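Why do we care about 3D structure at all? Because function follows from shape, and shape follows, mostly, from sequence. That is the central idea of this module. The next example makes it concrete: a single protein chain, its amino acid sequence, and then its structure expressed as tokens.
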Amino acid sequence: MGELVPGLKELLAELLPIKTNLFIQFILSIPVVFFFGSFIFSKGVKSVVKRKLNMFTLLSLGTSIAWGFSVVALFLPQIFPASLKMSNGLVPIYFEATVVIITLVILGQMLELLAHAKTNGAIKELLNLVPPTALVIRSGNEMVVPLAEVRVGDRVRVKPGEKGPGSVVTGGTINLNGSFIMIARKIGGDTLLARIIDMVNEASRSKAPI
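And the structure:
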């Protein structure tokens, strides 16, 4: 793409004949298209097989046609009509456009993975708020049980800390001093903290309709 820079086109023409330049572009584009960008074409084929067209359908179709056209134009320029040829007798080549598009898609995928990693870190922090055990009062006796064994209606002692009678207690809340007894109204996936984790997780997996 150096020929797009003012004054550099003539210098490049002196250093590299146009045919050599195009062959170098062809060779450098091969690992980008067939290795680094292979996932684009894989997802594009799957989208057609499943009849759920998406961004990768367009990307794989556009880049494969541009690259394939360029290969034919490079090695068999004589089969193209004169109306398609430039002043130097060559057909326009699009290796650099194909590589730039694939590179930008890869960059976008990397940024998306980074966002997912940060979301997963946030979910782990939320999970760390959930205590592994609870002090349950049953038949007048206090016993430590795994959190998964707490049942709706159980009376749970929270210590240390204090809250007013009738206050709503959310799992993961830190109690500062004193102790109190609460009644479990929601357990497992019905708790506020569990719903927050599910919402964050679902948001990280969702895709925009566009």
